[in-house]
Structure formats: C-alpha cells, structure tokens
Write a structure and sequence with these properties.
alpha/beta
C-alpha cells in the first residue's frame, strides 16, 4: 500500500519588505530532523526550478519549518506572487547538508547580513542552548529592512545592529559590529557568519589576524543538492569540495571567495533572460 503523498502546506506568510518574505511550511518529519546550518531544496510547482534555501527556523511542536526568501530572480519572484497561506509547495526535500558543529565554544559571535540574518538565528539559539555567551551582529542596508530583532534579543547576551545608512543601530557594515565586539571581549573563541560572499570575506579578514576560528555558510549554484551534478563545487584551501554534501559550512580562512563570486556570476545573463521572459508573460495584453 502506497503511503499518502506529503503535502507541503504553507501555514504562515509574512512580508518583511517589498522583496523579502517568510514562508512557514508544515512538514513534521523535517521539523523533527532539522538542525542549524542545514538547507532544503524547493520546487514551487511541477515545472519550476529547484532552488536551495537555508533553514531559517524549525518548530518541532508545530511540525513546521521556516524559510525566508528574497525575491531576486524569476523563481523567487514567482514564489513571492504565488506562495500564500493555503497554497502548497510542489516539492520540499531535506534537511540537506551537514549540520552546524556547535561544539563547546564559550563565547561566540553570530553574524548575519541581509538575507543571511534569517539562517544565522538557529545557530545563535543553538549556541545559547549549549551554554555559550552569544553576541549577535546583524546588518541591513536601512531600518526598513530589519526583521527578527526581538527573536535575536531573546537568544543573544549582547546584540548589535548595523545599517549602511545609519538609520538604525550603528552606521557601517557588520565588520564594524564585529570590531566593536572584539574591542569589548578578548576571549571570543568562535565567529559564525552568513550573508553575501563579500560580507563573509570581510568577516574572515577581521578575525584572521586574531586567529579566531571562523565559519561561513556558502551559497554556490546548486542543481540537485546531493553532490551528483558538481555545480556547487568550491575551493577550500587546496581542495575542491561540494557545498551541498561537504558543507554548506566551511572554514572561512580557507575559502577562495574570488572563485566563489566568479562562479556565482557565470549565469547572470541567463538568469536575467529568464526573469525578463517571465515578467513579459505576466503582463496583460495592452499593459
């Protein structure tokens, strides 16, 4: 007898800005299995693209996982339009990737930039639950883009908000927040950062001279999420690793960020063409 098909129902939708939105999806088995640092592969409809999304939260009692998405390309904009409460995802596979190694760190800085603020939250919570002193540093372009401030304050012993324009918190990049934390604490023994590659590279440079172990979560292009396609390969020191099965977290001081950013830019023309075609198809005749 066949098991009933899973239905990945969207039970909560929250819009943080005109481009960033939250989807809470019912999946009790995945919620029980999920760990900080892992990701899922998502298809919104039968003919859709498979995209990787890092878990932003999971609630084992509610039986749900939470995804925070930024509407940048064709697929994420299509999801922004169509994924509402009462609808469902076509496919949801995971949790995938290696979970974060929380370990026995005693004082940790958890850094999130932009969309990376969402997936750094489960790590901050896990470090707090392990008994570590947690310093949260999050960064946004401006005050209107800030989200989850209260959630972070609930799991952080210290909390620093940075903004590019100074409209909230301290003015500057998250690296300025890291430097502030380092000036206050000489005994920080780990830093974890998630965000755009250029931001993560900046974090790595700040901690390199202090020899503070630093972990980043990489976001190369993924197709299948199981290591078969090889599209997510990244250079870590003198080795080639697959982010989907060996990561997505790696030693920041060993990551070749130039190679990562080059690979991320390879398909920009195709991505733009796909978005343009989709936008043209969405327009009604005469508009």
């Amino acid at each position: 007898m066949l098991a009933p098909e899973a239905t990945f129902d969207i039970v909560t939708r929250e819009d943080f800005s005109d481009v960033t939105y939250l989807l809470e999806v019912r999946h009790p088995e995945m919620a029980r299995a999920a760990r900080p640092g892992q990701f899922v592969m998502v298809m919104s409809h039968a003919h859709g693209e498979r995209i990787p999304l890092t878990l932003a939260d999971f609630d084992r009692e509610r039986g749900t996982i939470t995804l925070v998405v930024q509407a940048m390309g064709k697929t994420t904009r299509e999801m922004q339009r169509d994924c509402v409460v009462g609808s469902r995802l076509y496919a949801l596979v995971g949790p995938m990737g290696e979970p974060s190694h929380i370990g026995a760190a005693k004082k940790v800085v958890c850094v999130g930039g932009g969309l990376g603020v969402a997936p750094i939250y489960p790590q901050a919570r896990a470090y707090r639950e392990s008994g570590a002193y947690v310093i949260g540093v999050i960064g946004f372009r401006s005050k209107g883009l800030v989200f989850w401030e209260d959630k972070f304050r609930g799991v952080c012993d210290e909390f620093i908000v940075c903004s590019d324009d100074g409209s909230v918190g301290m003015k500057g990049l998250v690296t300025e927040g890291i430097k502030l934390a380092l000036s206050r604490h000489a005994d920080i023994d780990r830093l974890v950062a998630i965000g755009p590659p250029v931001m993560m590279r900046g974090c790595a440079e700040v901690t390199r001279e202090r020899k503070i172990p630093t972990t980043v979560s990489l976001n190369p292009i993924m197709v299948d999420g199981t290591g078969m396609c090889g599209g997510c390969r990244v250079k870590i020191g003198d080795r080639i690793r697959f982010a989907c099965v060996d990561g997505p977290e790696f030693d920041a001081h060993q990551v070749d960020f130039d190679d990562l950013m080059f690979r991320l830019a390879r398909f920009k023309p195709e991505e733009k063409a796909a978005l343009d075609r989709w936008q043209q198809g969405c327009r009604l005749p005469g508009n």
